[in-house]
Each structure stands twice: as structure tokens, then as C-alpha cells.
Write a structure and sequence with these properties.
Length: 376
């Protein structure tokens, strides 16, 4: 099982690194295909659409052929799509490449999380650390992408290397992944209740509204509210992502001591306290510290949702994972414009304050509903 855990860890790390590696080169891509900010935003949206469309098929594939094949096949396919980005010379080609990246990424994502939950069930208890390694991978990939741009490495060469490396790791890891998935729930004559899938989708949707603003709006918040210099504003993003990574690296220890349900529920007041410190901050230092605390509270949310979706207790792994992922990816698509529209009307601080308060309350009510449904 240790070799399986190492293989899963390699998939998580390389997945995060591959995606972050091309992000620093987005301005270069925009110049190459000749689009303005609005056109770039619409083009980048294609990746989210691909992920949303791919959740259902990915879940059905897991139930049909198993998570090992889905994880490996999805990772190899997404590596080819990432390499294709480097050859995009028009908005249509880039949009198609990003659509494929989103489509195949959700396949790899659900497959490797199903594998991670299988290891979790057998006692390794590493799902939070796997997600922590994904976060570390994004830092490493982003740094390598920036270094490649600075060294004048062409987009084609850079992303071909990234894609080939990702495919090679996936192929090697696939030989050590588990062949069997978590057992499916016992079949009954009655049609399965849709309530668990609806609950998982709502949890994923709300969790996206809790996590995404910290990653996408933290630096803008410090800059907009306090007129901080760019270097200081950037620390907002660093603090939030560092908090998330730290909580994921130690989240399994917390879950082992207090249980997954208590760990999830305990994350919510920590996230709420962090966002309260951000919204009511009197200076950039307090806001940056608050963002770090918010990251600590947020980091364990998605790993536990993946664990719940793939547990196979109330619905099959594929159905549970696809329901949660569909809600989450829909939330990620909507949260950025929602914050922007609210911020333009009432100010960024009030917009984030109200949004985080409603989101934490909604997540708490959903967890209560989930506990009630599993005991009745």
C-alpha cells in the first residue's frame, strides 16, 4: 500500500505542476493569439466549461472500468492537451486546447481522488497530504514556468517537456495503483435516492465560493482596499495558499485524532475567523494574516469532500465524485464574476464579507443535513 500511496502522490504533484507551469506564460499566449483582456477571459473560460461537461462521463467511467484506468488515461490525455497549448496560434485553437484540458483534467482528477480515498479506507490516511502535494506542485510548476519564460524557452518546447514528463509519471504510477475500488453500496429494489448526490453537489458548489476568492481576489483586496504596493499585495495570495498547503499537510493528523466529520466542521469557524479579520482589517498586515488563517480553515474542505464523494457508502464512487465535482466546478465558474459584480456595487470588502458569511453558514447547514441523512 505504501507503493500505491507514492504513486498517487506523484500523480497529484505532477498534475498541480503541469497546470501551474503554463499560467505564468498566459500574457505571452495572449500576445501570440492577438486578444484583449475580454477575449482572453472568454478563451480561458473554455477550460472551466470542459471540466463541467466532463464530470458526468468521468464518474460513469470510474464505475465502469475502475479508477486506476481512469486516473492514468486521464493524466496521459491531459498531458497531450497541455502540450497542445504551446502550439496555439489562434483563439480557436487555444480555446479547443483548454476545453480538452478541462475535459481530461476532471477525468484524471476524479480517478486519482478515488485512488486516494481507497488508500484512506485501508488506513494510510493521506488524502489531505495528497492535496497538499498538489498545492506544492503548483508552486514548483509556476516557478519553473516563470524560469522557462525568463530563459527564453519557447512555449512549444516548454509545454512539450511538461506534457511528456506528466505522461511518463502517469504511465509509471499506473503500474502501482490499486486495481480494486471501494465497494459499491448494496443494491436494493428501490431506485437510489438522489438526495446524497444533491447534497454533495451543493457542498462542492459552496466550497468553491469559500476557496476561490482567497486564491483569485486576495492580492486584489490588499491592493484595492489599502493601496498597497505590488510586492505587499502579492503577499495576500502567498499567505492564503501557504495556509491552505499547511492545513493539508497536517490535515490527516487532525482527521485521525478527531475524525473527518469533526475536522471538516472545525475548519469552518477557522475560515470564518480568518475572513472576518480580512474584512475588518485596519491595515495590510492584518489582512494578510487573516488571509493566512482563512487558508488554514479552507485547506481541508475539498479533500474531505472528495473523501465523502468517493466513499461508496450511499452512492457509487463515480456518482458521488461526479456530483461533488459538478457542483464545485460550477461554483468556480460563477464565483469570480459574482465577486466582481458585488464588489463593483458595494465595495470589495463588504462583498467578500457578506459572501463568506453566507457561504460558511450554508456549508454548516449542509453538514448538519448530511449528518441527519446518514443516520435516518
Amino acid at each position: 500500500m505504501r507503493r500505491t500511496a507514492v504513486a498517487i502522490a506523484a500523480l497529484f504533484f505532477t498534475n498541480g505542476a503541469a497546470f501551474a507551469s503554463w499560467a505564468p506564460r498566459i500574457p505571452e499566449l495572449a500576445d501570440r493569439i492577438g486578444v484583449d483582456l475580454a477575449g482572453l477571459g472568454l478563451t480561458l473560460l473554455m477550460m472551466g466549461i470542459g471540466g463541467l461537461v466532463g464530470t458526468g462521463p468521468a464518474g460513469r467511467l470510474i464505475d465502469r472500468i475502475g479508477s486506476r484506468r481512469v486516473a492514468v488515461g486521464g493524466a496521459i490525455a491531459v498531458s497531450a492537451a497541455v502540450a497542445l497549448i504551446g502550439f496555439a496560434s489562434t483563439p480557436i485553437v487555444l480555446g479547443l486546447a483548454l476545453l480538452l484540458v478541462g475535459l481530461f483534467d476532471v477525468t484524471a482528477d476524479l480517478g486519482m481522488n478515488a485512488q486516494a480515498v481507497l488508500v484512506q479506507i485501508k488506513g494510510t490516511g493521506a488524502i489531505n497530504r495528497f492535496h497538499g502535494l498538489w498545492s506544492i506542485g503548483t508552486v514548483v510548476g509556476g516557478a519553473l514556468g516563470a524560469a522557462a519564460a525568463g530563459a527564453g524557452v519557447s512555449l512549444e518546447t516548454h509545454l512539450l517537456i511538461v506534457g511528456a514528463t506528466m505522461a511518463a509519471v502517469a504511465w509509471g504510477a499506473g503500474r502501482r495503483l490499486a486495481d480494486r475500488d471501494a465497494p459499491a453500496p448494496a443494491e436494493t429494489e428501490d431506485a437510489p435516492s438522489p438526495r446524497p448526490m444533491i447534497l454533495l453537489a451543493l457542498l462542492g458548489f459552496a466550497a468553491a465560493f469559500l476557496e476561490s476568492p482567497g486564491a483569485e481576489w486576495s492580492s486584489t483586496f490588499v491592493d484595492e482596499v489599502f493601496s498597497a504596493p505590488p510586492a505587499t499585495a502579492a503577499l495576500g495570495f502567498v499567505a492564503f495558499t501557504a495556509g491552505m498547503t499547511l492545513s493539508r499537510l497536517f490535515g490527516d493528523t487532525i482527521a485521525a485524532r478527531w475524525g473527518n466529520a469533526r475536522g471538516f466542521a472545525g475548519s469552518l469557524p477557522v475560515a470564518a475567523a480568518g475572513w472576518a479579520a480580512v474584512v475588518f482589517a485596519t491595515g495590510p498586515a492584518m489582512a494578510i494574516v487573516g488571509l493566512g488563517v482563512a487558508g488554514l480553515g479552507t485547506g481541508m474542505i475539498f479533500p474531505q469532500l472528495y473523501a465523502s464523494g468517493a466513499s461508496g457508502v450511499l452512492v457509487t464512487q463515480g456518482r458521488g465524485l461526479s456530483a461533488m465535482s459538478f457542483g464545485a466546478r460550477l461554483g468556480f465558474l460563477l464565483v469570480t464574476p459574482t465577486v466582481g459584480l458585488l464588489g463593483a456595487r458595494i465595495g470589495l470588502a463588504p462583498a467578500l464579507g457578506w459572501m463568506m458569511a453566507v457561504t460558511v453558514l450554508f456549508l454548516y447547514l449542509l453538514t448538519v443535513a448530511g449528518r441527519v441523512s446518514t443516520t435516518t
